TrEMBL record:
Chief place where the protein resides: membrane
Every CUB domain range: 7-120
Naturally occurring in which organism (per UniProt): Copsychus sechellarum
Domain F5/8 type C: residue ranges: 272-361
Intrachain disulfide bonds: C7-C34
Gene3D superfamilies named in the record: Galactose-binding domain-like, LCCL-like domain, Spermadhesin, CUB domain
Name of this chain's protein: DCBD1 protein
Membrane topology, as annotated: Single-pass type I membrane protein
Subcellular location: Membrane
Ranges of residues in domain LCCL: 142-218
UniProt entry tagged with the keyword Membrane: yes
Superkingdom field: Eukaryota
GO molecular function ontology, one term from the record: signaling receptor activity
Length: 361
């Protein structure tokens, strides 16, 4: 839990999370405070990673300070500020409960703080943000905590070509669809030879940038292959069905049918479209047999019309009769996927966890 007027971006889950001061990485405000109470599952202990601690220096950190306490053992860490920084980037506690207190009085400078945490179940190479370390070996694994999607920093590239090695690593992992931002998770990647140009893409709620040549690039490896048993192949759709389709009659009396079969991503010309003014329209894909489905790519129709879908829900069925809405990693509310912003570009969204089904709507 968190409380106070100095809290910035915060996402706390039982196994990992990310937190920052208000306005981070801009100057944090005067006369604010925030208290975060971290509670890990019983039998585990907390590991905290100091991504950035930049509080205005003062004697005994009196103007601004970061203080961590372990109520189970009575241990205190800090106070920290710019002239009294943590001695190591990773703090390993022996407790499942830690209280983090940040406060400020009048000051002039400082980005504030960015921290992340994970439990002792995930001690391997935990990351808050930051770009990849150039000294890391060619292939490596890190644990990304929940809440990295909204931290400060840029990413360049896309899931198919990889990411410029100066990209924020865990943010890129969310964009690539290898972890869900709500949960975090273990990420396996390699550093390979860079390329001349990294193309921008919108995927999993994040927009990457278009970037120039870098010496290395980050390639994320999926432990469970996405989209089909052959990694990254597109699953074949046996049959398309839809709630309705548009029979268009042009100004010169020519007919054009926007039928469900035209919904395949590789189709040239016009796509599928529901009947005008149709409510709760849906498109259904029959894969023939039950498959493991972990991603979807959408694109608009650029044939004369600037048509595209901006957001959508997903449901699945194993028999075509009983349908289950996709609720995502949180498992609570039905997930709304961010779709396209124009009719030209492709937008990817990952299913974490994957869907096992024959039919998708």
């Amino acid at each position: 839990v968190s409380a106070g007027n100095g809290c910035g971006h915060t996402l706390l889950t039982p196994n990992s999370g990310t937190l920052s001061s208000k306005n981070y990485p801009g100057t944090y405000p005067n006369h604010t405070m925030c208290c975060w109470r971290l509670q890990a599952p019983p039998g585990t202990s907390l590991l905290l990673a100091f991504g950035d601690v930049d509080l205005e220096p003062s004697e005994h950190c009196a103007l601004s300070s970061l203080l961590l306490t372990d109520p189970q053992t009575g241990t205190a860490y800090g106070p920290y500020c710019r002239n009294s920084v943590p001695s190591a980037p990773l703090l390993v506690t022996n407790s499942s409960t830690v209280t983090i207190l940040f406060n400020s009085t009048s000051h002039h400078s400082g980005r504030g703080l960015l921290l992340s945490y994970a439990t002792s179940q995930h001690p391997e190479g935990m990351r808050t943000g930051g770009s990849s370390d150039p000294l890391l070996i060619m292939c490596f694994s890190v644990y990304c905590p929940a809440g990295c999607k909204d931290i400060h920093g840029d990413i360049w590239g896309n899931p198919s070509q990889g990411y410029r090695d100066t990209s924020v690593l865990c943010k890129a992992a969310v964009h690539a669809g290898v972890i869900a931002d709500e949960l975090g998770g273990q990420v396996t990647l390699s550093r390979e030879k860079g390329i001349t140009l990294y193309e921008s893409a919108f995927a999993n709620g994040l927009r990457s940038k278009r970037g120039s040549l870098s010496e290395k690039r980050l390639i994320f490896h999926k432990v469970c292959c996405l989209l089909s048993p052959a990694c990254d192949d597109v699953l074949e759709v046996v049959t398309f069905n839809a709630s309705s389709w548009w029979h268009e009659v042009g100004m010169l009396g020519q007919d054009r049918d926007w039928v469900a079969e035209r919904a395949a991503l590789s189709t040239t010309g016009h796509s599928w479209a529901a009947e005008p003014d149709a409510k709760a329209a849906w498109l259904e894909l029959d894969l023939g047999i039950r498959r493991n489905i972990t991603g979807i790519i959408t694109k608009g129709s650029s044939e004369q019309h600037n048509y595209y879908v901006t957001s959508y829900h997903v449901s699945s069925s194993r028999d075509g009769k009983n349908w289950r809405p996709y609720r995502g990693s949180s498992g609570q509310e039905e997930k709304v996927f961010e779709g396209n912003a124009d009719s030209q570009g492709e937008v990817s969204n990952a299913f974490i966890p994957p869907i096992v089904a024959r039919y998708i709507r």
